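ok new one. same drill as before - structure tokens go in, u give me an amino acid for every spot. 382 of them this time. try not to just spam alanines like last time pls lmao
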């Protein structure tokens, strides 16, 4: 029986207050409006960005809210004007969109800074009418980055829905919708190490390890991994990393350690921590003359990046990468196809280290806060 046009009642994990465990509630999910898609979420995984907005340290609080942005699912129904996807399509919701009309989407140089659908962590409502599609007994529940995937059904703008090959296993491709593309793309699309070059990766969560995989696939000769959590090094051994550095083991800045290890600095570095200190180290450890550093981590609201301008004048390059420089709708279906054809070179099983039923979603938060494992897959139907 079709549910199109009707309110759907389903389970969602609601964040009522900053830092308090999510609670599984029955929510009402309104039908999609113009340019919107309602989808059934089958799998979602936790990314550190969800944790920042749940902890809300320094960010504007917006509660009650349904978090979540790394996910996979199936279109249930579509709103007026939607022709790109239809019920039954397999899709990945993407936290940043592509309207295909604005100056960014039309630019050959800009990839994913869409004027309309660029990530917005502070907006908790839909663009069509400034309202939420989620409610509990009439009380509105806010959205998160337009995706809110910690719900069995969610409503997303069509410009944030990537239609993928239905042959792709929805559990395995779930982390492609954020962490994998973010890290992998930061290396292969932005840092672009040449064969034989040295690469430093700061932060060994799923994003950093995807960046390390990118370096391996580009043919890097040395991949130096930096993390403060020694537990991360065990997991990272499965990822072609050649050396590990824990800044805590040295009584000098880690950039000096890396410069010494490499006789002048690495050719490329990719920062995937969210720590401004690591961002500065990642920049200062690249070689003068040609070194390129790419920042990926989401900083704290009042962070400031401080370095001596001479570091830049001596021909180092500092870049930032958002969503791995991929265009969310135009590129992601190809990334999924490449994964299926084994051309991407990534084994998703290495990234999905834990899996829990929906009722245990708070365990995924515990794992991330304790730095245990990489991605924890949450089964919304279980
Ligand atoms: P994660 O928590 O799983 O991994 C981060 C790792 O960084 C941890 O292992 C931690 O121990 C390490 N770390 C923290 N401070 C460090 C320091 N000073 N030096 C060295 N290592 C340090 O997180 P994740 O989900 O892999 O995400 C990584 C970062 O990427 C986060 O900041 C996240 O918000 C960001 N992110 C950015 C985008 C984007 O498009 N730019 C998209 C997704 C995630
Ligand atoms: Zn993310």
């Amino acid at each position: 029986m079709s549910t199109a046009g009707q309110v759907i009642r389903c389970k969602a994990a609601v964040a009522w207050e900053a830092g308090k465990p999510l609670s599984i509630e029955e929510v009402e999910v309104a039908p999609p409006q113009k340019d919107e898609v309602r989808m059934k979420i089958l799998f979602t995984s936790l990314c550190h960005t969800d944790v920042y907005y749940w902890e809300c340290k320094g960010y504007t609080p917006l509660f009650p809210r349904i978090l979540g942005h790394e996910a996979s699912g199936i279109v249930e129904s579509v709103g007026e004007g939607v022709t790109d996807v239809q019920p039954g399509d397999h899709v990945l919701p993407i936290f940043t969109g592509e309207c295909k009309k604005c100056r960014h989407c039309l630019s050959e140089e800009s990839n994913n800074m869409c004027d309309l659908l660029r990530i917005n962590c502070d907006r908790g409502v839909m663009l069509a009418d400034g309202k939420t599609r989620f409610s509990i007994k009439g009380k509105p529940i806010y959205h998160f980055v337009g995706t809110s995937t910690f719900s069995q059904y969610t409503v997303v703008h069509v410009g944030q829905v990537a239609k993928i090959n239905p042959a792709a296993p929805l559990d395995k491709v779930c982390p492609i919708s954020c962490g994998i593309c973010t890290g992998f793309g930061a290396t292969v699309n932005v840092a672009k190490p040449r064969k034989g070059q040295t690469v430093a990766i700061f932060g060994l969560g799923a994003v950093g390890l995807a960046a390390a995989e990118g370096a391996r696939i580009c043919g890097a000769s040395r991949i130096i991994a930096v993390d403060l959590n020694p537990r991360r090094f065990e997991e990272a051994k499965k990822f072609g990393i050649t050396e590990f550095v824990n800044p805590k083991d040295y009584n000098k800045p880690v950039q000096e350690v890396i410069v010494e290890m490499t006789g002048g600095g690495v050719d490329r570095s990719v920062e995937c921590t969210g720590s401004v200190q690591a961002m500065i180290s990642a920049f200062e450890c690249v070689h003068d003359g040609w070194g390129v550093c790419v920042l990926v981590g989401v900083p704290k609201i009042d962070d400031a990046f401080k370095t001596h301008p001479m570091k830049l004048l001596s021909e180092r390059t500092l870049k930032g990468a958002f969503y791995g420089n991929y265009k969310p709708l135009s590129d992601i279906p190809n990334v999924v196809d490449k994964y299926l054809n084994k051309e991407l070179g990534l084994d998703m099983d290495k990234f999905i280290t834990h899996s829990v039923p929906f009722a245990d979603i708070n365990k995924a938060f515990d794992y991330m806060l304790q730095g245990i494992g990489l991605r924890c897959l949450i089964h919304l139907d279980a």
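The CA atoms of residues 236 and 362 lie 24 Å apart. and btw The chain has a mean pLDDT of 96.
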